[in-house]
Amino acid sequence: xxxxxxxxxxxxxxxxxxxxxxxxxxxAERAAQDxxxxxxxxxxxxxxxx
Length: 50
Hints:
This protein is mostly helical and 50 residues long. It has 3 helices and no strands.
């Protein structure tokens, strides 16, 4: 995941927690397992904030 920008699985987990807190989202860990690009992450956040 996100190898192109240097994120490993721990970094990704931290990023998901930060996004959940910032946008007051329900836990998105399950959905996050399918994220492999920054664009997919942005689409997930966009889906929840609309």
